[in-house]
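Let's practice the habit of predicting before peeking. Look at the sequence and jot down your guess about where helices and strands might fall. Then scroll down.
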Amino acid sequence: MSQLDSNVSFSEYGTSFQEKIVQAFLTDHKWSAQMSEVIKIDYFDLKYLRFLADRFFQYHVKYKCFPTFHLLISIVRDDLREGTDIILRDKIIEYLHRTKTNPDMGDMQYVKDKSLDFCKKQALKEALVKAVDAISSGQDENVLSIIQEAMSAGSSPSLGHDFSDDFEFRFTETFRRTCPTGLDKLDSKDVLGGGLARGELGVIVANTGVGKSHMLVQLGATAVALGKNVVHYTFELTEGSVGLRYDSNICKIPKNDIIDRKDEVKKTYEKMELGRLIIKEYPTGTASIVTLRNHLDKLLLKGIKPDLLVVDYADIMRSTRKYDSLRHELKLIYEELRNLAMELEIPVWTASQANRDSAHSDVVGLENMSEAYGKAMVADVVLSISRKSSEKSQGTGRMFIAKNRAGRDGLLYPVKIDTGRSMIRILSDDEIIDADLEKKRFETTMKNLLKEKWKEVSSQKTTEN
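Done guessing? Here is the structure:
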């Protein structure tokens, strides 16, 4: 190694920084792939971290993929049996135990950015030395390739989708891996094509009290019932309240009866193979995308990888950047949520408040998304739910597909909204006819009551005169 690169290490950043680099290896494999092109194990000045990083990248070289946290523990356990010194063994065990039980994921993005930048600069410095040596030895033709290789090292490892060479991939089932909504008409081939896909952002738009949160619970409950892992973030309701809504939906028991029917709920779950559900509460306006990312990294270290993310709801998250206009902050939040969906390769459902003008509308469209039309530009799927005050007693409303990158949009469905069970379903043709008859009967009854009331008032006025 040249004099330029001697004694180079992460030591200037401290122990905590170096430990977080290893944590980042275990939670972000895309970033690890970038680092694999530029990092040197000797950059770690702590022996136990060099040991772990070495085993981590050795596995990648051999199997062309990175080990999970639990797999790395197994690899290290086997290696430590082969006479490793006691001090090193104890350091490794203590670090892995501390990381698993109480991982500190704060400032993780900063650590990843800083360490990648550090490694890329060292790679470029080394390339410059090689270039000088090449010129000195008369190999001028190699200089350009040396510099270009160093400049590209550490960038995104994917070259993209080669339209010709990757022809077969586009026709495999995994090309667009979806998470069903549970509503057959939405999941149909010509609409969502199976549901919301990995890397996509879906938004539920509705006015206050219409059923945004109930719809998000239904989407999460459908996934859990299918055996998928779901992480549900709540910024208004408590974790327990959201949990009871999931109980109501999955067990089809009104929320007010759940507590009294505990044994029935338990027996229902014993017959099902449910996925893992994690419900995490943050106070309104305190959680940013960094907050969610840190929590998800902790879950990954504990072996919990979500198949679906539910965020209730994005409009009341905290932006990572301050703007003079609220709509710019909201657009950024939605952009960051979609970026998170793409990075984790999972679908994300969230909700958006509809503006006041939509309160009496039959259909809520993109123009009714409160504060920021830019939110609609970011989303892959936008579903709106609308119902007038007169429809609440009947539990009916309408669902409109306002935007859909996966298939047809502009479709309007009559729905049944059962807030007691956090269930929203699209009505069948027969139910639509029955609902229309019920609506007409209701309207007739209300008209008759008003007539009777008017007669009473008129009679009282006549008597008084």
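How did you do? The radius of gyration is 28 Å.
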